[in-house]
Amino acid sequence: MPKPVSASNTSRRLEIRFPEELPVSGQRGIIKDALQNHQVVIVCGETGSGKTTQLPKICLDLGRGTINGGKLIGHTQPRRIAATATAKRIAQELGSPIGQDVGYQVRFADKTSNTASIKLMTDGILLAETQRDPQLKAYDTLIIDEAHERSLNIDFLLGYLRQLLPKRPDLKLIITSATIDAQRFAEHFAINGKVAPVIEVSGRLFPVEQRYSPLEPDPKPDGKKESKAVKEIPEAVTEAIANVWREGASGAGDVLVFLPGEREIRDCAEALRKDHVLQQRFHPEILSLFARQSVAEQERVFSPGNGRRIILTTNVAETSLTVPNIRYVIDSGLARVKRYSYRNKVEQLQIEPISQAAANQRAGRCGRVSDGICIRLYSELDYQSRPKFTDPEILRSSLAAVLLRMSSLRLPKIQHFPFIDKPLGRAITDGVQLLDELGAIEFDESDASDSKDINNSFKLTAIGKQLADLPLDPRIGRMLLAAKEQNALKEVTIIASALATQDPRERPMDQGAAADQAHLQFADERSEFLSFVKLWSWYQDALQHKHSNRQLENLCRSKFLSPRRLREWRDVHGQLHTMLGEKGWKENGLAATYEQVHLSLLTGLLGYVAKKEEDEKSQDRNSKTGGYVGARGIRPFIWPGSTIGKKAGAWILAGELQETNRMYARTIAKIEPQWVEKVAAHRLIKSLSDPFWDHRQGEVMAFERGTLYGLPIYHGRRVRYEPHNPEEARELFISQALVQEEMFGRMETPALYRETEADAKKKYPGLFGFFWHNCRLIKEIEALEHRSRRPDVLVDDDLLFAFYESRIPKAVCNREGLKAWLKKEPELDSQLRLEKADLMRHEAAGITVDRYPKKMMVGGVELNLTYHFEPGSPKDGVTLVVPLTQLNQVDGRRCEWLVPGMCEEKVLLLLKSLPQKLRRHCVPLPDYAKSFLERKLEDKQFGVGDFLDSLISDIRKERGLEIKRTDFRPEALPLHSSMNFRLIDEHGRQLEVERNLVRLRSEYGETARSAFQAIAQETAQTELGVEPPKANSTKPDEKARAVEQGGYRSWEFGELPETLEIQKGNKTLFGYPALVDRGDYCDLEVFDDLLEARKQHHLGLRRLFALSNKDTLKALQKQLPGIRELGLLFINVGSVEGLIEQILNLAIERAFMTEVLPVNAEQFAERLQAGKPRLALIAQEVSRHALNALQAHADLQKKMASAKAASPTAYADMQTQMQGLIFPKFVADIPYGQLVHLPRYLKAIAMRIDKLRSNPSRDAQCQKDWESVARPWQKLLQGSKGSSSYAMTEDQTLQDFRWQLEELRVALYAQELKTPSPMSLKRLEKVLASLR
After folding, report:
1. DSSP H or E run through 601
2. Mapped to the 3 state alphabet, what secondary structure does 1007-1051 carry?
3. Can you give the three-state secondary structure of 263-325, one letter per residue?
4. Among 992, 972, 973, 989, which residue's Cα sits nearest to residue 981?
């Protein structure tokens, strides 16, 4: 029976008894002595020693406490449940009602009175009291229990008390622990070099046998591993349980299995249920115990069962909790430990090996009732190598709250604070960063100067002081402060209290889907934070309408909600509500908007913002990184159990980031990026890039990018650059707005320039005159540069910059500033006006309008010329602006000459392209080029005839040198030495830019002709008296077309001039009217090309004569002499009908069209009258000539075979000659004068064949002689065809030479046949020389 001890010095006496069975009771004398002689005593008691309940009573017995005229005995516990349970137990032992002598205070619940001597509390409560009572004057004794847990609060208290003890010599401190590193505590509390005494108290434990059964076998001494495979945890647990239970009666008893987490518990439970041996022999009850379980599930563990039980638990059962009837412990040696990542600002739950101390605590669980056995699933070697103690929480936590509290308590800087384990430097930095993020601190610049580390020198802001006053996590406190401002306090208090307690929603393993379905009614499609608000509203409603507590609990369970956690949430909310009410904070009457709530939350969770990744890869299911990118480069996944999940938008806010095997964002909500900017304006790092002149704003702007901890919140925002960098803004203003002439926008085309100038003068009347004056001057000088192809006339931008820079005041950086300065005095504008001399580096001599004309005559019309100097550009050189209607009138030969100013360079380049042996005759080349141009200008021959021919004849005349066209290499000349043609439509829009006129005409020639004829039609109607063709005349039966529809069968219109003047607006165009052959009738059309008009008119007039002699021609078709023979001889050459048509057409031309063509009805009638009688005779004559030629051809064909045998070369030559004489259109194409001679030419071939057999060598010599003049002629012909696009008519002399060559063949091979005029090789060589 314990002996009662009476407390002294008080009117009210307390019976203090000490149960003798508790080891600590036996040591009370030693503890009393130590306490009387030392300020600090360390009691090192093992599990079950009774230290928790007996130490406060020992202190009372020693005369401390209120009842003895002293002050409170404070007693802290790490867990709320332990504080309340211990208080009740001590009160019971003292026989006093709770609150009278023994009280407790947890979270916000206070069960103490003025008379209380002992106060149980959580260490957090005592910490909170240090703010109101820094000296802790309410206490004369403090007991810090379970100090081995080394939570943040314990470490902070121990450090705080270490500093307080010297100031409070009357304060006694007892530190207790189960497994403690006693020596470190003793040294930490050494006073004046004297170490604090350590009193060891044994525990009430039965012996525990340690067995090691590692999952992975240890390697053998020779380095080889055993053959046993590595076991998985569930398999090893099943095996161990089977082994211990097999030991017969002694094997009976429950098993406590320590596993790292819920998932492992699930796997293990499944493996045990599937093990048939265990199930059939022992029928065990398999239970689980972990923090998130409902109270009912946890209670089942503490009530002893009938059969054998296997309890699967996490590290919650290590301390404080005592599970009854445990005989065996199986320890996996692993636990999930919260570690704070300083880099990612997240708490990570990682599976780590436990320390030796934790392993011993676990083993101690099975020695409470009888001898126990602990099976460790790791080797003894592994156990020995583990750290002795678990890392104190301070080394793996965020220090923001500690720092905040220390700052508010005006404690020394954290580096100098006497912690048992000093926090890491980066942990401190991290805490400072979080407080800075929350806006709770500001850095003290003056203090930073003497210390290199800025973390040391900060002070609390107004927000910081308010946060320190709230006993809450700084993030949650910050949310509430923001909610007060946002009028969302009601909702945020609900959310904050939910975040501070465990989630009341339960999800039992076997009913996951049902639980998810039940919780859907609380889900919010945009925000999981609002799910708490919905759940709260539902719970409040259920409370109001409840019939009984049981009915309410059943309702909650049906929704898979934990009634205990809901009550706890309600308590926390109530306490929070009361506390805020006491501070005078008012809740919002109206419901807060989504934005108000989330702006408040965002304030406390800035580091938890994330933005959806743009690229597809990160959205892939198997991607290693999440689909979001967050602050500080983290890439989280959305928590799999999220109700929003894939519907989360581009930006989310997370309530927490947790890293297990992946980084997960939990409790998420959709947010807008502009909210981040609103809340985090003080945290955004802004960077400017690419400053530029913005003519709309009239100042220099830049693109701003805002990032929050590396996460881009916005980019590309235009902001004023001047406030950030006035010097550079001024430089850009001068260089871009003034020097580059972009003051009012870019003026790239003349039209844009005119429009911009008109707008600016309207907006700023009488201002900025200097700007337009300078622009015009620069444009003039640039035009000079383009013409002269010299880029060195205009001064460079640097000189212009210097001009403006020296005259404009330093303060002027934008248009408005310049405007205000110019308005001060009228003469300021003239100071900024440039002179021509300022802008030109040298006098641009020789750049005159006659050398570089602005217009050129084309088809009697002046067309514009433009100049551009930019080598390599398509615009380089001189460009002729050609309206579409005049494309076919452009004289290509004239364009080859370019303009006088550029012709000299072209001649020089052409001379340089000559071979050396020819080139040397013209040296010095520049002088020759210059004199050639001067000669042509003097003789008014510039632009007349073919350019190359003119140059060749000039060289022949000046230097007596024979040069051929082929000696020049025009293809080697640069682009600008050929004319550029810019084709425009009637509105001035560019259709094409091309240097090749032939290509341009082949593409646009038809379009140009149609456009021209559309314009010319009106003029043609009035001038020529022509009826316009009516629409819809495109029927296939054109023969039925009536005269009045536009077709003519005789001359029924006015006079037909060769040229027609057409007025189009202020322009005069020239057209060429012609008759066009349509088969059964003729049409009148106006052509844009004289050659084409002449060709068409010749055919059209012939058709008109044919239509007037219809009957005669019809009769002739049948009555031509030798018509049958003609047909037989021609059948192998071509169509007989075609031949007859050719004969009749030639007859018409010979009868009616040999003289000047008629231009009116009268002349036409006269010509018709005169030619009619001759038509038949001429037709018969032509027919006879054709027949003679065909007969000679037929005779020749018979001889050709023998020629092939005699000489293949000669045969090939004769074949070519024959094909040039007799071919399908020979009557139409060979001039009539030569048609007569065809039989002679063919006969000459026949004679050549006869002579070939007897003297082949002579034939070969003659062929060689003939080719010596024929080949050069062919080259000349090709050369003229090359420029034929420019030649107005093909050279007639070249055509005549072709027949002279035929006569030469006769002279060479058949002198007997004679030639009309003397013919020899020498004679033809002279003719050829003149042609060149």
Report:
1. helix 594-604
2. HHHHHHHHHHHHHHHHHHCCCCCCCCCCCCCHHHCCHHHCCECCC
3. HHHHHHHHHHHHCHHHHHHHCCEEEEECCCCCHHHHHHHHCCCCCCEEEEECHHHCCCCCCCC
4. 992
Q: Which amino acid is at 649?
A: G
pLDDT at 812: 92
Three-class secondary structure of residue 206 per DSSP: coil
Report which of 508, 479, 496 is spatially closest to residue 536, judged by C-alpha positions: 496
**Residue in 916, 932, 781, 922 with CA at minimum distance from that of residue 842:** 781
Q: What tokens does 1100 get?
A: 């059209």
Tell whether the torsion through CA atoms of 98, 100, 105 and 108 is positive or negative.
positive
How confident is the model at residue 534, as a pLDDT? 93
CA atoms within 13 A on the CB side of 523: 14
Beta bridge partners of 120: 75, 104
* pLDDT band, residue 1222 (cuts 50/70/90): very high
Lookup result for tokens 């190359």: 948
The percent of residues in the chain predicted with pLDDT above 70, rounded, is 89
Do 1060 and 1074 touch, CB atoms closer than 8 A? no
CA dihedral of 466, 470, 473, 474, whole degrees rounded to 10:
0
CB 347 within 8 A of CB 393: no
| Calpha distance 685→715 (Å, rounded) | 12
Residues 145, 52: contact at Cβ < 8 Å? yes
CA distance 773 to 151: 80
Query: What distance in Å separates the CA atoms of residue 102 and residue 739, rounded to the nearest whole number?
Result: 88
- pLDDT value, residue 84: 79
- The conformation of residue 850, written as its DSSP 8-state character, comes to T
Residue 342: phi and psi, rounded to 5, are -70, -30
d(CA 1180, CA 1147) in angstroms, rounded, equals 9
Strand order in the sheet with 254-258: 208-212, 372-376, 326-331, 254-258, 309-313, 285-289
* pLDDT score at 749: 84
Q: What is the pLDDT of residues 216-269, one digit of tens each?
A: 876 655 555 454 567 888 999 999 988 888 876 666 788 999 998 777 888 899
Q: What is the pLDDT of residue 406?
A: 73
Q: Could you tell me if 420 and 155 are in contact, meaning their C-beta atoms sit under 8 angstroms apart?
A: yes
Q: Residue 253, Cβ neighbours under 10 Å: how many?
A: 19
Its pTM stands at 0.54
Q: For 103-112, which contacts have Cβ atoms below 8 Å and span 24 or more sequence positions?
A: 106/80, 107/80, 107/571, 107/572, 107/575, 108/571, 108/572, 108/574, 108/575, 108/576, 108/578, 108/579, 109/571, 109/575, 111/87
What's the CA gap between 615 and 541, in Å, rounded? Answer: 46
Tokens representing 117 are: 């001597």
* Alpha carbon distances (Å) from 414 to 152, 186, 400, 403, 418: 14, 22, 11, 7, 8
**CA-to-CA distance for 1151 and 1105, rounded, in angstroms?**
10
CA dihedral sign of residues 74, 77, 83, 86 = negative
pLDDT digits (tens, 9 = 90+) for 46-60: 766 788 888 999 999
The SS3 call for residue 1068 is strand
Sign of torsion over alpha carbons 610, 613, 614, 619: negative
Please report the pLDDT score of residue 1030 as a whole number.
Answer: 45
Which of 1167, 1041, 1042 shows the shortest CA–CA distance to 1104?
A: 1167
Omega of the bond leading into 304 within 30 degrees of 0 (cis): no
Residue 259's pLDDT is 92
The candidate with the shortest Cα–Cα distance to 1110, out of 1081, 1068, 1073, 1142, is 1081
Give the number of other Cβ atoms within 10 Å of residue 308's Cβ. Answer: 20
- How much is the pLDDT for 350? 66
Give 271-299 pLDDT, tens digit per residue. 999 888 888 888 888 998 876 565 567 66
Q: Spell out the residues 6+ positions from residue 827 whose beta carbon is closer than 8 angstroms to its own.
A: none
How far is the C-alpha of 47 from the C-alpha of 430, rounded, in Å?
37
Measured distance CA(12)–CA(69) in Å, rounded: 11
